[in-house]
Design brief:
It is built from seven helices and 17 strands. Strands 10, 11, 14, 15, 16 and 17 form a six-stranded mixed beta sheet that branches. A hairpin with a 2-residue loop joins strand 1 and strand 2.
Length: 373
């Protein structure tokens, strides 16, 4: 009996061991029992990175300038020369433009033209760095020689192409091929037209010669003398840079009205002038543009051998003031003592300067007749 109990006990122990190990051992590792209250871990969410923007494009808009240098007396013919470019925003530029002395500023670049006057350059400066644009100063010649005054022109911000710069050649009044009267001619221009007043010749309409002015009158001969001087290409037409005036003349068989007409010049007889035998009046509008003119002249001063009428037309069209520094063989614009009967070499040169089409009314003399390089 004892033996049976022992065998039964052994069987019970064997079953317990099998039950204890069955389903709980995997690859020799004991697995934990499931916990009905365990919460599953959340699935990790990928972190969102910002999308990179486009790479900024570097500013490569460098300032470009190109064009041609000519002289103002020979259009269409290029002249070899040198051009300096300045930053217009330099605080010294404003005063330098008035004085013509640029020694206190350093140019951004210096350009030499080719033998035909053409030039082209790209500055080491962005357009965005030149908000006020540039100032160009040009001379005919080379770095060691100079045969013209310095022409100064301002340009707005942005590239400049097909630029035309016309410099004024030094005078050669003696006609020997050597510049002369350089300072004197500049002073002459300051004396006779410091504000650079000029007519818009495209708008100019008429020269009216009135036969009567109250009780004063011109004879037919005096009227013909006046007409011939106006139409003479070597006389009055020189004061309008060679513009032909033949078709602008009208003879009025009467007296002038009280007021003047726009874009018109009156010539009227006056026997009772005081202090002389001729006087000229002009009126201008803003911008130094002449718009009306009137000459009153003693009829006896219209003769072919009298310079008064030509002198007065000089006041009307080109030289509103009187000459002082140049002698009587160079100009007809002296207040007294004129010996020339037609415009002198200085008068002709000044008129070419004034009515050259890149020259604006009211420009500072220093911008067209600069002497400091």
């Amino acid at each position: 009996m004892v033996k049976r109990l022992i065998n039964k006990l052994r069987g019970t122990i064997r079953k317990g061991i099998l039950l204890a190990t069955a389903g709980l051992v995997f690859n020799g590792c004991q697995l934990p029992e499931p916990n009905p209250y365990t919460t599953e871990a959340p699935t990790p969410t990928a972190t969102s990175e910002p999308t990179p923007g486009p790479t900024p494009t570097p500013d490569t808009d460098y300032f470009d300038i190109s064009g041609r240098l000519e002289d103002n007396e020979n259009h269409g013919i290029g002249r070899q020369g040198v051009i300096k470019i300045y930053d217009a925003s330099n605080p010294n530029i404003e005063d330098d433009l008035k004085t013509g002395d640029f020694s206190d500023v350093t140019p951004l670049t210096e350009i030499s033209t080719d033998s035909n006057g053409y030039f082209s350059a790209t500055l080491d400066k962005l357009n965005s760095e030149l908000p006020d644009g540039i100032v160009a100063r040009a001379k005919i010649g080379n770095e060691s020689t100079q045969t013209s005054y310095v022409r100064t022109i301002s340009f707005p911000q942005g590239d400049q192409s097909d630029v035309l710069i016309r410099a004024i050649p030094y005078p050669d009044f003696d006609g020997n091929g050597t510049p002369d009267n350089i300072a004197e001619f500049k002073q002459h221009v300051i004396e006779t037209n410091s504000f650079q007043r000029k007519w818009d010749l495209d708008q100019f309409s008429k020269i009216k010669i009135f036969k009567y002015n109250g009780s004063d009158s011109f004879t037919d001969e005096q009227i013909n003398n006046t007409i011939n001087k106006i139409k003479d290409s070597e006389n009055v037409e020189k004061f309008v840079n060679g513009k032909e005036l033949d078709n602008y003349i009208e003879v009025v068989d009467g007296s002038p009205i009280e007021y003047w007409e726009d874009n018109c010049v009156y010539v009227v007889p006056n026997d009772n002038l005081t202090g002389g035998v001729g006087v000229a009046y002009t009126q201008e509008v803003p911008g130094r543009k002449l718009i009306r003119g009137k000459i009153e002249i003693n009829p006896c001063a219209t003769g072919t051998d009298n310079p008064v009428l030509t002198h007065e037309f000089g006041h009307i069209f080109a030289e509103t003031g009187h000459a002082v520094i140049l002698p009587s063989d160079k100009t007809i614009m002296l207040p007294t003592g004129n010996i020339l009967l037609k415009p002198g070499v200085a008068d002709i040169k000044e008129t070419k300067l004034l009515y050259e089409n890149t020259h604006n009314a009211g420009e500072d003399v220093e911008k067209v007749l600069g002497t400091g390089w």
